Amino acid sequence: MNVKTLTIVGVGLIGGSIGLAARRRGVVKRVLGVSRDLAGVARAKALGIIDDGLLDLTEPVRCSELVIFCTPVDRIASQVLAAAPACAPGTLLTDAGSTKAAIVRAVEGRLPPGVDFVGGHPLAGSEKRGLEHAHPDLFQGRLTILTQTPRTATKAVEEIAAFWTGLGAHVRVMDPEQHDRALALTSHLPHLAAAALSAILPPHLHDLVASGFRDTTRVAAGDPALWTGIFVQNRTAVLEALNQLEERLSQFRAALEKGDSAAFDALLAQAKKVRDTLGN
Amino acid sequence: MNVKTLTIVGVGLIGGSIGLAARRRGVVKRVLGVSRDLAGVARAKALGIIDDGLLDLTEPVRCSELVIFCTPVDRIASQVLAAAPACAPGTLLTDAGSTKAAIVRAVEGRLPPGVDFVGGHPLAGSEKRGLEHAHPDLFQGRLTILTQTPRTATKAVEEIAAFWTGLGAHVRVMDPEQHDRALALTSHLPHLAAAALSAILPPHLHDLVASGFRDTTRVAAGDPALWTGIFVQNRTAVLEALNQLEERLSQFRAALEKGDSAAFDALLAQAKKVRDTLGN
Fold first, then answer.
1. Which of A172, A197, A239 would you mutate first to test chain B, the one with the most B CBs within 10 A?
2. Which of A31, A165, A275, B166 lies in disulfide reach of B220, CB 3.0 to 4.6 Å?
3. Largest Cα span, chain B
4. How far is CA A232 from the centre of its chain?
């Protein structure tokens, strides 16, 4: 793929990091940014994230070979559908949302001929928000998942994969539902647990927390609106994952209630075995 | 307090760090270490953690003004009671265990006249173990909790507090049960949640985890036997804390099942508010 112009819709932590990475690595010739506010566009330009910025997506997508939507998951599908009619044939559309099935389902089969959409999700980010935290190496060595369904053009997937590889990422192709079930366990459920642990900490214990509590709950500082969108879109898989968590907590509880140290130790040992394989 | 000789019983991450800090800061003149294995004693000496080491605690406690027990919580009380008869009047005994009520209860009223015990718990440490990870600044700026009951000598608490201040720590004095209820929420429950989240991650998802999962589950790499001892000793408070966690998870579940975005968002926002006060 020879991308002269890339448009990034939503220039925050992820969109901003894509812009920085794409410009510094020479993956594209020009980066346009679409943001809801003029101040954001100006800051993105000042930070070297974009060559130019606009408030509306119709104009920039018209002259872009690649458009990537980095907006909250509950806005992506409607923005893709709004942008598509303005796109020239051959334009590739993709996104960076944390859920995939609802977005892909809403978009597939509703695009003009010659315009392709491939769902994407870079497994990078943090509890921080905003283009001030954007970093050109955010995707270096990290995994980006792309989605493929029977209706997704293989060539489009390959071209989006080449784009992410150019930003330093590894790429894995998955079915959107498979992605959502996986992320329910690897990301959404941990977020829920972290939020619940934070929420029940009474004020008089705030200065008794140490690094363990901080680590375990760090993601709970994430933006509530963004995460509510993710949870609502991935509701079924999250509820299934939550069942699994509660079942496992019940096993710990039963061992503790019975005073069965051996059973409790075995449960912790199995958890440690998994955690030890994941690195620091 | 003028401590010429400090004996550390159990020279791992915590005991080793106490030795390094006490020697480098000149808080004591001489540090003796008691370890179950000769190789551990030799390594501790080679690393500059102790001046000398022994396998048995009777000899070193005889000539020490301060003895600190840094062994697993289920061994501390019996070791304190075994050491006490050998101690000279005026000897101070303390510990660094993560639970306090069971230990203090087992020790109080069973010491020879003139020998005092003060429960202690430095809120420092990590999922790592062993004296190779010991660090002289481990307690710098961290909190150490000391326990006081109606039977604890105030002067003993003050002297142990001065020792910890000398290692760079802040000190807070609490009732042992109050400590255990607090730690159930700030440390033991997060450990349980982290272990459950790790345990249910199937092998085919191991390479899909990102920094969020790693942070949330980091403590689950802790030593199972050590943590089983902590959970068993603090069983009542942990089970109460687990009730609170499960209740809060049920609130998230209910909001999600009803598709009540506003309620879900409010739950996440309250969690974020707490987490934001805790720093990184």
1. A197
2. A275
3. 68
4. 15
Chain A to chain B Cβ contacts (< 8 Å)? 266
Cβ–Cβ of A198/B274 closer than 8 Å?
yes
The pLDDT tens digits of the residues spanning B13-65 come to 999 999 999 999 999 999 999 998 889 999 999 999 999 999 999 999 999 99
Give the start-end residues of each E strand in chain A. 5-9, 30-34, 52-54, 66-69, 92-95, 116-118, 120-122, 143-147, 170-174
Cα–Cα distance for residue pair B214/B211, rounded to 1 Å: 5
Residue found under tokens 């804390």? B241
pTM listed for this prediction: 0.95
Q: Which of B100, B137, B187, B213 to substitute to test the interface with A, most A CBs within 10 Å?
A: B213
Burial of B196 (0-12, 13-18, 19+ CB in 10 A): buried
How confident is the model at residue B191, as a pLDDT? 98
Write out the DSSP string of B244-280. Answer: HHHHHHHHHHHHHHTT-HHHHHHHHHHHHHHHHTT--
Q: Each residue of B105-154: pLDDT tens digit?
A: 999 999 999 999 999 999 987 667 788 899 999 999 999 999 999 999 99
Q: Which of A109, A92, A76 is nearest to A164 (CA)?
A: A92
Torsion-angle region of B192 (φ positive above 0: left; ψ -120 to 50: alpha; else: beta): alpha
Rounded Cα distance, B105 and B230, in Å: 15
**C-alpha angle B91-B93-B94 in degrees, rounded to nearest 5:** 150
3-state secondary structure of A136: coil
What chain B residue is nearest to A144 in terms of C-alpha separation? B208
Q: Could you give the C-alpha distances from B221 to A276, A277, B114, B191, B199, in angstroms and in order?
A: 6, 10, 41, 10, 11
Token pair 């030890």: residue: A276
Question: Which chain B residues are within 8 Å of A189, Cβ to Cβ?
Answer: 197
The number of residues making up chain A comes to: 280
